[in-house]
Amino acid sequence: MTTDVAVPALGGSRRDRLVLHVTAAVVTAVVLAPLLRPGYVLRYDMVFVPRQPLRWDLIVSLDTLPRAVPQDLVVSLLSQVVPGWLLQRIALVAVIWLATVGAGRLVPARRRLTRIVAAVGYAWSPFLAERLLLGQWGLLLAYAALPWLVAAALDLRAGRRGALSKLVLAAALAAITPTGGVLALLTTAVLVTGRRGVAALGAVVALNAPWLTAAAVTTAGGRSAAEGVAAFAARAENWAGPLVALAGTGGIWNAQTTPESRSSVLVPLVTVGLLVLAAIGFPVLRRRWPAGLAVRLGALALLSYGLAALATLPGGAAVLRWLVSEVPGAGLLRDGQKLLVPYAMCLFLCAALGAERLVDRLADRLADRLAAPADRLAAPADRLAAPAERLVLVGLVLLPVVVLPDLTFGVGGQLRPVRYPADWTTVSRIVADEPGPVLSLPLSMYRAYPWNHGTVVIDPLPRHLPAEVLTDDTLYVGDLAVPGENPRMRRIRQTIAEGGSVAGTDVRWVVVQPESGGRLPETALVGLRLIHSGPTLTLYENPRAVDAGSPPNQRRWIALGGAVLALSVLLAALANLLRRATAW
Fold first, then answer.
1. Is 583 contained in some domain?
2. Taking the model in full, what pTM does it have?
3. CB burial readout 105-140, b (16+ within 10 A) else e
């Protein structure tokens, strides 16, 4: 019988790592092929612009919850030196490349193909496809970074040099969004203990400082609308229900971002097979990892699955409604499916080891059947068994692609680059000459432009214009309206609803986007002066606008202090790695 032998070091041999990078290149090319065209992919929460301005309201959102902190700050800083179209491609390539290589190097495999099974499974998952369609590239960076963070935690527990710095780098990538930062913090707390654990946990807390300090100074408060619990609950994608959809790393709340192949009647059966493989592989992980670490990772995976499924469990929705409406910061639990990241990593890691274990048993049986009697020449059992082993593993490598073919070519061609109309540059230049608050009308958080193929996207104006842009923060999911938290926007919305004009507000400019849909009462524009009328944008100036003054500097500097603290920790980790040769 085949028994466990010495397992290669984390990441495998140099040839193993090279094969993983080649695999990552192939997967990235197949998924992101449409991005070879010029332009910007604008889809739901994914908005990149030619050069995102560096503004206070992008560093710290004083009137809204810090959902895009520090993501907007990072993009604004980088886009001062890197054009937006290139920055978007770097981010998306990093997501798929790091996810592929990270998962493959983390699995303690004895076969190179086992690493590829884990790598392709993790990078070709329903979770990645659905969040990519939703445009949440920041969350996907956390998804890609988590295997690297776990690998660094393994090194840290083993006392390897540079491990803490590598953990900080992985956590910093994850902490580009609040959800990713929380996942990095939780993973570090679970996997690393002792004095090393205290240092690692302190560093990851510091990396979360930008959004924590931003949340502390916002006027929006830390609570969210309870109506969002039903809107963001995991949903069924086929006959098996939401719990099975989550078990296969799918189940996103937005039906428009669910690949069509997820509705197949065979998908739940494949999910059950994947779970069986993971159950077979988990004991292998326990034997090959340091004592207790696999159990800790398994517990973290079960916790993440439980949180993702909470809204669908009996009584769970009521608990969540109370939490998000009463406990500051609990709104992070509202969209539970995004918390599946640790579960997805553990699932594909164990499933790959389960496949390797089954192949070992297959090899043993083939060898027993093909072996010749002792008094005759031995049959070439190994030469006959090896191709069969490879055939099974190659089949498992290709299985995710067969089950989720939609991910090819930009998720079935849905990631299509476009160019901003010339109007956008014209309006941006006018506003830049006389900066002031801008209101985007008609009231809507998301837009659907003809020039963007009718694809839904969050309003790009706040990132395109060199001034603060106010947009409606009410989110509509079907017929359900989830109220926003911005008190300033609430007053403007009430003024328009009562038939008043925005001329009586403190906004300097009003941009009307007639092609984006939505209804705009005629009374809303009374008293405004037309400055520019183009095919896609109309710009009005409010002659009655009064400078309301800047928000208190103290709040700004507190939030900026959080960003500086996180940056200092990151730079210290980078400097430590650059001082020594570190094996990655």
1. no
2. 0.93
3. bbbbbbbbbbbbbbbbbbbbbbbbbbbbbbbbbbbb
